[in-house]
Amino acid sequence: MPVLSDASSIDWEDPDLVPRPVMTIGAAGLNAAGPDDHEGPPGDSRKEANFHHHRKGQFLLWMRGVLACEVAGGFWLVPPGSAIWVPGGVQHRMETAGTIECYVVYVDPAVGGALPRDCCTLPTTPLLRELVIRSAALPTRYEEGGMASRLMALLLDEMALAQPGQVHLPMPTDSRLRKLVEWIMAKPSDPGSIDSWAARMEISPRTLSRLIARETGMSFGRWRRQLHLLLALQWMARGATVQDVAAGLGYENASNFVVMFRKVLGETPGRYLKANG
Description:
The protein is of the alpha+beta class. It has helices at 126-135, 147-161, 175-186, 194-201, 205-216, 220-237, 242-248, 254-265, 269-276; strands at 22-31, 57-71, 74-78, 82-86, 92-107, 120-122, 169-170.
């Protein structure tokens, strides 16, 4: 299928119904301001903010713009150059920002046994990116048994070699903690301690600490640091400077933010974006 450039004028075919074990759809130049939905092509801003699922798994390679994906118990931000895997049958919701360039590989569960069982981000290599882009140029119902099938088999092998990444935020399901998430995301620079947040929620700090550990497997400090990391990736992918990001997250200076970023991801923000962009 050609890479889509106008979501309103293409003849869309539901990938779950296409009788091929693997197929790829690309989208470029779409201004997507809404969430993903299984009823339309990637990047279509007409979609509604609903959780949904696909029979086939989705490997989304994001080249331009920013993708946010939420499943029960997890939240990911996918910056340009990175990818995310959503297994078939997993309820999820996606939202995009900016001008979109992306590729979505749909994988039938019958051939995806070597891929992760859970939703996760995946690093991409130049070979993997080129295989995804090349596969998007194939007809939707490509001839099986020939070169196209061999290309898709190699693509699956490369996808299976990718190891899950660290850019993930466990999301609580407890209604009290979801409110806390909303407060912190609305003002990530708020330096409030767990004591101050507990007072605002009218519970004890010990209860809040236990709730966060039970729901996320993390301490409050580590969970908030991971949230800051995800927001930083999103802002930098949109063009924000390290100084702007540090200020927006409440750091006293850019150096402190860079230290946190490097501690978690092993690289400075500039090197990380260069390697994954």
